[in-house]
User: What shape does this take?
Amino acid sequence: MSYEPDDMGQYSVSFPRDFNYGPEDGEGDSGGATPEHKPRILLMGLRRSGKSSIQKVVFHKVSPNETLFLESTNKVVKEDVTNCSFVVFQIWDLPGHLDYFDSTFDSEHIFGGCGALIFVIDSQDDYMDALAKLHFTVSRAYKINPKIKFEVFIHKVDGLSDDHKIETQRDIHQRATDDLVDAGLENLHLSFYLTSIYDHSIFEAFSKVIQKLIPQLPTLENLLDIFISNSGIEKAFLFDVVSKVYIATDSSPVDMQSYELCCDMIDVVLDISMIYGEDGDSSFPDRSKEESAFNTESSSVIKLNNGTVMYLREVTKYLALVCILREDSFKKQGLIDYNFWCFRQGIQEVFDLRKKHANGDIVPNGIPEPQKDVKAN
Assistant: This one.
């Protein structure tokens, strides 16, 4: 089993200054973003740690049980998320048995163009070898590109008890941090996540990773804060509907149960749209009907038995806003819809900003102010 380093040469090592989005109209192309102009996420770890399973479940909608039949990755697998998501970036699944700092490989090329490095550790196995590999990898990669975001997925925690999960995370965190301090790399920061493909933890972890690569994130969060404060909404997520990764949420803490409900709601909307929605745009023959059926008419309201309402609205063909609010607040749906329209205009401004900056013409489009509820005397 050999790896051909020539395959790495088709992409440039340059890393973009911002996290690109596709255009609202014609999301089928990448908006002119060639592979060398897309942020890159590296998936690394020892063999059988679950890297390929993560990629298949998050970005290909493969059932977790089906990943049991996946073979070990023996060559670099490059996933261009442009073709299945409004968010534009690349994922490289790197086999765990290769040393990418060996002279055989162009390590400057691999890590120089990297935005985030996800190292997957199998929590159900003896992770001492994985910790040694983690330290070796991040210390070398940091010297090549100090701007890399280093993320550690403590994976396969579905087989551990709650107490064992906490203890495993504490132990891995302590050992990995101590190794970096001993090596004089105190400035190298690692983020740790407990993940499993059998629940929504892997989607939430990927959401946090991708958000770190979005320079517009503070603007998106501010727009969401303004929207929910003027609409009586308790929580709001801006979702990529294909991957169920949320690229932004408001500043209030994320409750895992609420996030899971939102993910389930997106699945329901996509399934219904696939059956009853309009046929996909013929200009995108490579897209499935399930993806293209989500359009400007897509919306959903789900009322829970605890007096909570979940409200979904389409922002773009591949972005959706999912809100959680009390049933009493939803009685003012007209106010919420108007403020949503203002929010949507603001999102479009964010997407247009890069183009306007390139043209030297940053002029606001006159976004209306959100309205608050006005009570008659």
